[in-house]
Amino acid sequence: MSETVLRKPAVLASAQGGSRLRPEGDRSAFARMVIACLCVALVATVLFSLAFGASDASVLSVVKSLIAGSDITDNALSVRDRIIIYDIRLPRVILGALIGASLAVSGAVMQGLFRNPLADPGIVGVSAGAGLGAVSIIVLGGTFLAPVIALFSLYALPLAAFFGALIFTLVLYRVATRRGQTSIATMLLAGIALGAMAAAYIGVLVYVADDKQLRDLTFWGLGSLAGANWVKIAASGPLIALALVISPFLARGLNGLALGEASASHLGIPVQRFKRIAILTVAAATGASVAVSGGIGFVGVVVPHLLRLVIGPDHRYLLPAAALLGASLLLIADAVSRTIVAPSELPIGIVTAAVGAPFFLWILLRRRGILDL
Amino acid sequence: MIHVSNVSVSLGRNRIVEDVSFDAQAGAFTVIVGPNGSGKTTLMRALSGDLPHEGVISINGTPIDRLKLWQMATMRAILPQSTSLSFPFTVREIVKLGMTSGRSGASRHNVDTLPDEALERVDLAGFGGRFYQELSGGEQQRVQLARVLCQVWQPVLDGQPRFLFLDEPVSSLDIKHQLIIMQIARDFADRGGGVIAILHDLNLTSMFADRVVVMHRGRADSVGTPTEVLTDDRILRVYECALKVGGLPGKSVPFVLPQSAVL
Q1: Cα B119 to chain center, whole Å?
Q2: Which of A5, A46, A66, A131 would staple B134 via disulfide (CB 3.0–4.6 Å)?
Q3: How many domains does chain A contain in total?
């Protein structure tokens, strides 16, 4: 048990020095302050992302233009910059922020649900399930699954990914959780099996795909925001927004669940119903973001973990903070991905994995005590 | 009052608890004793509403299967044997979770200080800022008790008694804290609430309990006051151990009974 001991964060001590009246161990005031800072950081990141790129418009002129709205008569931006910002960068920034938020929140909700800091949709196969759903639509949309597309039009892709994610989450939960206790080893192993299964089916689909579909699939699978446009936002945005709106209502239940399922229900939380809603939320957030951007890994495990170290695991603060930090970090990763090999650009999934995977290993090293449970 | 009438519980195909009946009155401290595997914890889980049961279990006159979870949460709080966490909660944050049901019964100006008061009750004043995971097993157990106390801080709410269910509350505690915890339970009962606890320590049982339920092979072997149920032949039959009630060791063997404590 002593392996799992966490150092008292220095920030905690200084935060309490500032307000002596708060009882020791109450981090809520500090958490609220962090959330306020993250709001400011997100606004700054958004403006920076809008102004930053091959054609540099100043941050100031972007702000002026945003305030003036679509009124073409203002002279803050040239027509060319206006097109670049409103038709290319703005949808990309909105999509990036939505996806970053939904990846971080789905990670945090899933970790709370499984009572395990390593449960991330990308790691335990849920993203793979979403990917299978999405690839099925991309490859078979013209033939076998044409009726689905006819019925749901642009929503077919995110919905298919949602159902893929949902089925995989349900299977994972069924396999890894027995009598309210999740076995960490079983969960990770089941995740490997589910990932392999999805990879096999995706392989079959890739085999039957034509050249154009193959190219689409490759870039999609690496994780990219490059194709962002207003249509994609219209398709996936609602599902992501829904999940983000629901997530604060999960906070109380996730806090109770941290004590175990029995204790949570003794506190009056309707655990079974709550788990169903949480699983649906994770599937919606993961499915919708995988549908647009493919596999962007490790945001869901890194962001909540960092925040737990700083503001603690109380989900009432953790979930909104994760949404804000996830959005900011993904926008920064996107900025890196479009400049590091300019004028070409790197899929963002490569950037997040390159930074996130070592971080994940570091968590494993530090938390081995908990894994041994 | 907790009314238990002809209650049987099965886990899978095994009948673990068979036809148990007893009443746990408000204002009384009821202790369930019995050897390992006699069905104590299974019975407790049925009382908590975690396991389906045959027969009737009612709290203050209402069968528990007709109560919603949040209603039960306002009527009784349950201390589990142990609770491990995988997230770095502080002690105070854990204790505060006890107030999730929102019916601690503390007056409005006390709500903010309730976690600290509860920590003081379990002799953990000043531990609020520590991480739960860095505490010893016994300290963690007391943190959980503080959380459970917050859930039913007032033993009587709106004229209705409330209940504490404690599953081996002193099993990992040193003798001082065993006495403190037993005193907290005693006090809860004296102020009008009801307590049901599973204990292994027969000395503490006879010292603090009003009623004792002796479990043996899934059945309630006997129900009565400590003096009535703790007899040589019953201990021999139930625990399969020839012990003598009130028997003293030889002169050279030191022995320490909790009864000798000055409270």
Answers
A1: 18
A2: A5
A3: 1
Asked whether residue B169 carries a pLDDT value surpassing 80, the answer given is yes
B98 vs A267: CB contact, 8 Å cut-off?
yes
Does residue B89 lie in a domain region? no
Q: Which domain holds residue B33?
A: 2-84+154-260
A156-181 confidence digits (pLDDT tens): 888 888 889 899 988 988 888 776 66
Report the residue from B69, B71, B77 with minimal CB separation from A269: B69
Q: Which residues of B touch A117 (CB under 8 A)?
A: 86-87
Contact across the interface for A267 and B101, Cβ inside 8 Å: yes
Tens of pLDDT, residue by residue over A280-307, are 899 889 988 888 888 788 899 999 999 9
State the pLDDT confidence band at B227, using cuts at 50, 70 and 90: very high
Residue B161, preceding peptide bond in cis (omega within 30° of 0): no
Q: Is the ipTM of this complex over 0.85?
A: yes
Chain centroid offset of residue A129 CA: 15
Total tally of structural domains belonging to chain B: 1
Partner residue facing A24 (CB), from B72, B84, B128: B128
pTM of the entire predicted model: 0.87
Residue of B nearest to A184 (CA): B86
Give kind and range of the element (H or E) at residue A166: helix A156-176
Q: What is the DSSP string of A121-163?
A: TTTTTHHHHHHHHHHHHHHHTTTTTHHHHHHHGGGHHHHHHHH
